[in-house]
Amino acid sequence: MNFAELLVLAIGLSMDAFAISICKGLSVEKLEKKHMVITGLWFGGSQMAMPIIGYFVGGSFYEAIQSVDHWLSFALLLLIGVNMIRESMGKIETLNASFSPKVMFPLAIADSIDALAVGVTFAFRQVPLVPSVPVIGLTTFLFSAAGVWIGNRFGAKYKSKAELAGGIVLIGIGFVILLQDLGILAG
After folding, report:
1. Which of 46, 94, 117, 161 places its Cα 20 to 30 Å from the Cα of 24?
2. What is the mean pLDDT of residues 108-128?
3. Average pLDDT, stretch 113-127?
4. Model pTM?
5. Mean pLDDT for the chain overall
6. Is 53 exposed, middle or buried (0-12, 13-18, 19+ CB in 10 A)?
7. Helices 3-26 and 129-154, packing angle to 10 deg
8. 8 A C-beta contact, residue 179 and residue 77
C-alpha cells in the first residue's frame, strides 16, 4: 500500500469520527480548544489502537486463509462502507455535551470497530503497521478536532455527508484490493 492509498484509507476511516465530532461540537455552547484536543485524542488514539489489535488477531490465522484474503478484505471493507452509507441516511444523533472519559471512551471504541477490521485486513495484506497506524491516528485526530469546530460553527448539515463519503471511500479501497489481487488492476 503506497502513501496515497494509505492516506485515502485514513481519511475514509476518520469520517465516522468526523461525523460524531460534528455532533459533539453541536452539543457545546461555548467551544474551547480543549474540546477539540480531547475529541481528537480519543478518536485518534482508538483509531491507532484498533488496527494494531486487528493486525495481531488477523495475523494469527493468516496462513489458513491466505488464498482468499483478498475476498475477506473486500468483504470487510464493503460491509463497513455500506454500513457507513446506511448510517448517513439515518436521523441526526444528539450527543451528550460531556467530554469525560465515561462519555468519550464508549464513543471512541464504537467508532473504531471498523479500524479493527482494517487491522485484520492489514495482516492479510501484510501492510506494515508503521507508518500505517500513525497516519490513521493523526488523520483521525485532525478530522475529529475539525469536526468539533465545524459542528459548533455550522451545524449538523455535514454529518451525513461525511459518513457517506467515508463509506464510498472504503468500498472503493475494497474494490481496488480485490481487483489488484485478481490481476485485473496493476498494484
Report:
1. 117
2. 88
3. 88
4. 0.75
5. 86
6. middle
7. 30
8. no
Question: Which positions ≥6 away from 22 have C-beta within 8 Å?
Answer: 147, 148, 150, 151, 156, 158, 159, 162
Amino acid, res. 185: L
- What does each C-alpha distance from 6 to 35, 75, 95, 122, 160 come to in angstroms? 27, 18, 30, 11, 23
Q: Residue by residue, what is the 3-state secondary structure of the chain?
A: CCHHHHHHHHHHHHHHHHHHHHHHHHCCCCCCHHHHHHHHHHHHHHHHHHHHHHHHHHHCCHHHHHHHHHHHHHHHHHHHHHHHHHHHCCCCCCCCCCCCHHHHHHHHHHHCHHHHHHHHHHHHHCCCHHHHHHHHHHHHHHHHHHHHHHHHHHCHHHHHHHHHHHHHHHHHHHHHHHHHHCCCCCC
